[in-house]
Amino acid sequence: MNTVIDQAVQVRLIATTPGPYAVPAMLHYQPADPLAVRMSFPPEISLDGSAVDWAFARELLDEGLRAPAGRGDVRVRPSGPDRTVMEFHADEGIAMVQLRTADVRQFLARSYAAVQAGSESAHLGMDHALAELFGAAGAAES
Q1: Could you report the per-residue pLDDT of 105-118, keeping only the tens digit for each?
Q2: pTM for the whole thing?
Q3: Which of 37, 73, 97, 136 could lock onto 11 through a cystine, CB 3.0 to 4.6 A?
Q4: In DSSP terms, which residues pair with 97 in a beta bridge?
Q5: CA dist., res. 87 & res. 38, Å (int)
Q6: Is residue 9 within 8 Å of 103, Cβ to Cβ?
Q7: What average pLDDT does this structure show over 10-31?
Q8: What's the chain's Rg over C-alpha atoms?
Q9: What Cα–Cα distance (Å) separates residue 101 from each residue in 16, 41, 71, 82, 105?
Q10: Please, which residues have CB within 8 angstroms of residue 29's CB and are 6 or more apart in sequence?
């Protein structure tokens, strides 16, 4: 079963201009890529008018619900009991968004129902892909 998990979330963009404003975003998880989560933002919030997608570790998102997590391009931390802050670092600057922690927990629960924590390697499909590759090479030699 290769269930794709998409969950629409409302995020508050935290900007240098007065007051945060709400924008739609999408959390995305696919068991075929079991270690990663993707977050997509609509074109209207990007500097160049293009949709923006970020990929990061599912474990990072989970850890960031309890304590600050991440040192790279994506960082996650709790912001009070009901909110989670995500920071996205790029050459152009830093974007910060705030999500409802309940939405993140619901998304993670759905992803863990599809692929349990610790069993991600069984879903990577590398063995199957290698078998197909070597099977195709063996068939070509015959």
Answers
A1: 999 999 999 887 76
A2: 0.77
A3: 97
A4: 13, 86
A5: 14
A6: yes
A7: 79
A8: 18
A9: 23, 18, 20, 5, 6
A10: 4, 5, 6, 36, 37, 38, 58, 107, 110, 111, 114
At residue 87, the pLDDT reads 94
Q: Residue type at 67?
A: A
Q: What is the C-alpha separation between 80 and 56, in angstroms, rounded?
A: 23
Neighbour count for residue 11 (Cβ, 10 Å)? 25
Please give the single-letter amino acid code of residue 125: G
Question: Do 77 and 62 meet the contact criterion of CB atoms below 8 Å apart?
Answer: no
Please report where in the chains the tokens 């349990």 appear, as a residue. Answer: 116
**Cβ atoms < 10 Å from Cβ of 64:** 23
- Residue at token pair 């975003």: 25
Residue type at position 3: T
- 3-class secondary structure, 85: strand
| Token code pair at residue 74 | 């994506």
